[in-house]
Amino acid sequence: MYKSLLHNVSLKATSRIVRRSVSSQEKGASGKRKPKAKAMEASYDRNRRWTPVGDQAAAGRSTHKFKVVSYNILAQDLLLEHFFLYVGIPQEFLTWQRRQQNVLRELIKLDPDILCLQEMQFDHLAVLVQRLCMGNGKKLAYVYKKKTGHRTDGCAIVYDCSKFELLDHQAVELHDQAVALLNRDNVALFARFRFKKQQEQQKEFVVATTHLLYNPKRSDVRCAQVGRILEELHSFSTDTPIVLTGDFNSLPDSSPIKLLIDKNGDVESEASAEQLHFQIIDSGEGTASTYQNDWVIVDYILRSLGARSRHKLLPLSVYSLPSINRCFATGLIPNHHLGSDHYALGAVFTVV
């Protein structure tokens, strides 16, 4: 059954909790534990820096900047279903209470304007967003699409509704009985935004997120899923530039990713003006986003290319992924500091 939620989270409704949270943080600030937390955080932040890219002169002039973070946060129901994958990790680091604390601390520090979440369990979403509101002082809203079938997780796009106006959104089910390869419960979610304070310039953009099939042997299914996403995005975005994020369960040189970038990920040509294809926002050489029998990259942030859009998205900075060596040194995740089995990705864009 189609299920798409649009929900606003008001700070007023949680003012009592916010005051208690601030009070608790202030007490902690005068205690002896904070230096230890700082040292721990610094050790995990190596190779995780915001690195400037692109035209920094444009960054200085632009008033249409926004920060996107994409994060597969590991649904608790999936963790419990596949508990054997986390043998060797102390169970105290695998509880949702502990993992949520770690995820929230990381997201509050990253402070995105738009947050794309994969494996977001439906009954954890409202509380997570509420606590983000308390942590960063923003007024947040979200759209959500649960996977089809019996799964309890899905994709969410959380955004600062004081900064952006949500113009439209669309949930896409990647299950189609008429297409043999589209027989899985994966989904995608699109949202079209406009900056509230510059409405006279009508600069709009689309943010999309998805989580493709995991099965390493079924690249054909993932290609079919990418194809469906591209079809739906083409009609949804019209002449609007797109940020596409997610866990694609695909290596950079795999067929699904080649289909997305059209083997042309860094070139804009007149011949491909009407074709929808993307460029991967590079998160660093020799880096990884998760462990799948080895430390690999399967999570991406991409931007659309081509002349079909009235405006363009220019990347200004990227949140570098940890190096593979750093991943090996850190060891298995989730752990005492990191709340998921994936690393978060981030990028700052400007609309020109």
From TrEMBL:
It holds the Pfam family Exo_endo_phos. Residues 70-342 form the Endonuclease/exonuclease/phosphatase domain. InterPro entries: CCR4/nocturin_mRNA_transcr, Endo/exonu/phosph_ase_sf, Endo/exonuclease/phosphatase. GO terms for cellular component: mitochondrial matrix. One of its GO terms (biological process) is mitochondrial mRNA 3'-end processing. Residues 20-41 are annotated as: Disordered. It comes from the Eukaryota. One of its GO terms (molecular function) is RNA 2'-phosphatase activity. This is Endonuclease/exonuclease/phosphatase domain-containing protein. It comes from Drosophila erecta. The gene is Dere\GG26977.
